[in-house]
Every structure is written in C-alpha cells, then in structure tokens.
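During the reporting period the student researcher (J.K.) took over the structure-prediction task from the postdoctoral fellow and processed the backlog of single-chain submissions. One of the processed entries is reproduced below for the supervisory committee.
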Amino acid sequence: MLAALFMFLYLGFAFVRPLANPDEGRYTEIPREMAQSGDWVTPRLNGVEYFYKPPLFYWAQAASIKAFGVNRVSARLPNAIFASLGVLLTYVAGRLLYGSRRTGLIAAFLLGTCGLYLGMAHIVTMDMPLAVFLSGALFAFILAYRQKQNVARGVWILIFFAFAALALLSKGFMAVLIPAAVIFLFAFVAGPWRFLKHFAPSDLLWTALGILIFFAITAPWHILAALANPAGGGVEFFTASHDGQGFLWYYVVHEHFLRYIDPATSQRAQPFYFFFIVAPLGFLPWAFALPQAFKSAFAGGFNNARANNPQGLFLTIWAIFIVLFFSVSSSKLIPYVLPIFPALAVITASWISKVWKANRAQEIRTAVKILGGFAVLAGICAVPVYMILEAKGRVQLEDASYGIAVFAVLSVALLIGGIFALRDIRGNKPKGALLSIFIAWCVFAATFDFVGALFQRPDSQEFAKVIKGQMSAGDAVLLMDYGNSQDMPVWLGSPVYVWGVPEEQSFGFKREEAMHTHRYIESQAELKALLASGKRVFIVMRNKDIEKYDKLFGAERLKKLDANKRMSLFSNQ
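J.K. obtained the following structure tokens:
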C-alpha cells in the first residue's frame, strides 16, 4: 500500500510537467545515448564523454527508456522507484528499531511527504538514489548493531555493504566516507567498549564477506571505465591540471577532491550556514515537530540515551554529521542534505507514535496549531496568489486556464485539513488532528506536477516536433543557450550543435576535440561558416537574447518558426 501510494504521488502525473532543464534534460539524455549506443561503460552527454558521476542511475534510466521509449514518464520512473524504495526502507527501519508498526508507518509518511524529499522524488537527479542507498546502508548498520548475534545480524551486515556499494555507484566515494564517519562517531559517543561488546568474532567473517560483495559490485565498472578512457603518456596524476588526463584523474581528483575543497572548481560556493537553513526548511511541514522529537529521544539525559536509545543517538549523529560534512565543502547544492531526512523521519515518528498510542493531545498541541493555522492561511491565499502571479506573467504555460482549478483544489484541501486539525486538537483528539494534516498534505503533494507545469519554464519538446517535421538529412540544430535546452537531444534522438563549450563538458570535449569541434561553435567566423555551408540550421535561443545575437548573425536573415514565453525557434532557410 505504501509503494502504491507513493508511486502514485511521485509518478501519477509525471506526463504533465515539462522536463526541468538543465538537470532533467541532462540526466535523461545521458542514458538515452547509452541505450542507443550500447556503451554502458562510458557515459556521454551530447556525444561528449561525461565522467561527473558513476553510472548506476544512468543504467536505471537507460533500462526504463529501452523498455518504455523516450517520454516524461519513462524519464522519471526510476527516480520515483528509488524515492518509493526510500520510503519503504524508512518504514522497515522505524518498525524494527522501535518495535512498532505504527512508528514505521508514520516515519514513511513523514519522509515521503516532507518538502525537499517530495520535490526531489519528482525531479530527475542522482541525489535521490544516493540518499536512498546511503540511508539503506546506515539503517542496516544500526539494525545489525541492535540485532542479537545470529544469522540475522550477519544478513544485516551484508545488506549494509551491498547498499554502500550501490550508493558508491550512484554518486561516488562519499558513500564510503559518510557511513564510516557516522559509525566511528557513534562508537566514540556511545563509548568504544560498549560499542565493541555488541560484536562477536563471527561478525568479522560476515564483514569479510560483505567487503567482497562491496568490491564485486563496485570494482568492475571502475576498472572498465579506467581501461576504456586512459590518460595520455607521462601525465602527473596528483595535479589540478586536466591536460592529457583520463577517467581516473577526473573522477577521483577533480570530482572528489577539487570539487570539495576548491570553490573555483565547484562553482557552487555558499556560506557555511547554508545547510543549517536548508535542512529544517527541507523537512517542512514536519520540522515543527523536531524540537519535541529530539527532546523525547534524549529524555532522561545523554547517558540514558546511550544506554536505552542507541538508535536515537545514531540517527542524530547521522543527521548532524551529514549537515556538517557538506557545510565544510566548497560545493553546496540544496539536494545534498537529502540523506538526513530518513533519520529525521524515524526520530520524529518515534515521538509521534508515543503520542498517538497514549492519545496525549497536549504534547502536539503547539505543532498542530502551527500546521493547522498555516494550512488555513495557505488555503485562503492560494487562489488569489495564483491570480496575482498570472497577472504578472509568471505563469509559463500559453494556456494556463486550468491553473485556477488546480489552486482551487489546493485551497479546499488545505482549508478543510487545517480547520479539522484545529478543531480536533481543541477537542483533545490528536489522532484526528494528525490524520487531517496528513491527508491535506497528501492532496497538496499530488498537485506537484500540475503546479510545476504552470510555473516551470517550457522544455524543448514542442520545438523538437516542429524541427522533426521539417528536418532533412544533413540539417543541423544549434542551441545558443545549452543550459536552457539540454533536453533538445532527448526529443530529437541525436546530438546537437552548441554555441560555446559548456564548462561541464570541457574535459570530455578536449579529450576528443577533433571528433566534436564541428558541433561546438566558438566564434562568429565558425557560425557564419555553418550558416553558409548549405545546411538548413534550426536555431534555438532565449527571447531575451534575440537582440544580443542580432549582431552575431549579422546580415543573415532568420525565419521564426515557433516561440513560447521563454524561447524562440528560428531557421536560416
């Protein structure tokens, strides 16, 4: 039932919302090319080698595309499956760690509907599979720690190593560093002797087998990728220069070290406190319950938690370490903290479950009043806010007539949920109050793709239809702003010409420059040569850049074929 519910929330209306560029365009095109070429070792983006991350997510995406074709649903299917798996893992962990099916169910609902997790379950990136497998590994460890010394513990140890391996194949070496650091800190805080007493000599055999499983999963691709994409002769490995380098340098040095410590490499610098703001905001609306949840987890003091609630201590260390780890990094993006939310969901669910069982309304009165009041206020404002945004031209759809209906549904759901929650908490009915909020928020979650379709910039699918209807063999498609149209090759089914070399592709481009230089136009002279080559060239540019590019195209007359509120499609013939 959980799987069905969350697959519906995450994928039920995926066909409505355009692909979000650049991320969804990029992470659909790479696996599309992989499925088309049959090369499952070397990822390519627009035909160029692309070594940013390991390939597990690409493989899942490529399998979906091969099975169901190229469309919005097939592009988002693996991400929705991973997100739903994360919900199920959190249910299992909450149920087993606290011996309560209720705790598992509440934890699953909290995770699956918290703001950032909900959003990333809809958006195709590598952050979701990393978060799911990393959480699976950490859950498996604490379950092994809590398990009696028998075969069941050995199975959890093997599961830990298997999930860690899948996490590494999802996004790199942090999948090893983070679990190792969390386990070390837990052992230190819980007391090394107390920690070691939980393990028996037989656990070493399970661990050895787990390490073998880990390398059996992770080693083949790394070896094959290194062999298929070697460095040039006499190249120094430990350097910041990428000249002549191969896969291993880019993957290890550039992506794992330079991107973490060097702001110029990451180009994603944010203040140290960035994730201290993002983390609680990402757990909304359930963040209001966190103070009381942590207070309950550490009731009786720290020593009592070490002795009687080691799982709560472990989950707390898990969440705090990940926030600190990425806060120190020079590379900061909002989804990086996604792996903390399964831990926060279980901690919060353990407290809510106690309140539910004892029917103690006073303990959640403040949180419910805040949530209920917010829901009522949002319900009142939903339709007027939409009308204001539409009047200001913020709605991206040409025909946004259904927007009022979407926001009316939102308004009614939030109003009813908020009013019933406030009524029930005044009547000392905490179960009814919580159910009202859960149901209202699930309705809100179900509208994600509809709201996204209204406000998200259009993708390139309609332009691709126009181009394919007029395109002949030998014609070219040129993107003047690649970042806003990275999905164009997805819909065309082939690489495109690009104005300039995007930074993210510069390493792969230089490795095979002779192969790709004709498609990456870097000067006005090269542009004029393309337009004078006799080819019909379809050109996509942002509307706000048309005047800027007039001088670049000079006397060349371009015919406008199509346009939307953000982009325009031209042709030189």
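The committee noted the following: The chain has three domains: 2-358, 362-455, 461-571.
J.K. will present the remaining backlog at the next meeting.
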